[in-house]
Amino acid sequence: MLAVVAMCAMATIAITLGIVVMLVTESWHFFNSQYVSVRDFLTGTRWTALQSKSIEDAKFGIWPLLSGTFRVTSIAMLIALPSGLITAIYLSEFASSKVRATLKPALEVIAGIPTVVLGYFAVLVISPSLQWLTNGGFDAFNATSAGIAVGILCLPMVCSLSEDALHAVPRSLREGAFGLGCTPLETATRVVVPAALSGIVSAFLLAFSRAIGETMVVALAAGTQATYTMDPRAQSQTMTGFIVEMIKSENEYGTVQYYSLYGVAVTLFVITFGMTLVGQLVRRRYRETYA
């Protein structure tokens, strides 16, 4: 059994290293091209890898894709983080057993909805509703509708992980707060939440990484035009959305346009890896240990 466990651990490490090697080697073909400059890639504000008719006219500035990614992610987090935390506090500290037995399965149902279904929900329900409310102020495909759908997708994750962190706080802390005259709301917000802060922040960062890496929702609802703007009403092609579009395009293997998807993929990997490191540091910094 020890050998089996060790083999599983080594397989996990080998798979991770294989992914890193694949990204580095394939993206090297992109960055080594005469048409690509690392400086322009990191600072450029135009991305026309699929729109340009010739490779000489193509622009490979990553910021339009980063802008679209963070627009969608920011909207999603504005929905998922406060709603998920408030729901977790309610379920952990205030809800009765009957209410908890109803809400928990409902959240699990939301978590089990396929992302492609949420993508079509954004296209057929959320986006037309936004256009109707603003009298056509939104594009047919926009960052807001995609962000709302991604927020719905991340909500069960935030709620479940935050509730687990709140449940891990010892009962003695609550009883001590009650003994000092705190109300249930004060106990929940000033004692329990700070005590579970490391787990809550980890849940937030995990949801943030999940939103950045979401593919199907943004590929369907955000649009296919990379725009360098902060306007949530405009189309917003994300990094994952571009990867999907490039794979579906007619660009042949070995072209600079084809290898550009690996340049975008390695950028996405660096961002998510950085978020994981930040999450580990935050967890260690604010972790509370109770006897």
Task: Give your account of this protein's structure.
With 291 residues, this protein is an all-alpha fold. 73% of the residues lie in helices and 0% in strands. The chain contains 12 helices and no strands. The protein has helices at 2-31, 38-43, 63-94, 97-111, 115-133, 143-167, 171-179, 184-195, 197-213, 216-221, 239-248, 256-286. α9 (197-213) packs antiparallel against α12 (256-286). 35% of the residues are buried. The model has no long low-confidence stretch (mean pLDDT 86).
Structure, briefly:
With 291 residues, this protein is an all-alpha fold. 73% of the residues lie in helices and 0% in strands.
Indicate the topology.
Blueprint: H1 2-31, H2 38-43, H3 63-94, H4 97-111, H5 115-133, H6 143-167, H7 171-179, H8 184-195, H9 197-213, H10 216-221, H11 239-248, H12 256-286
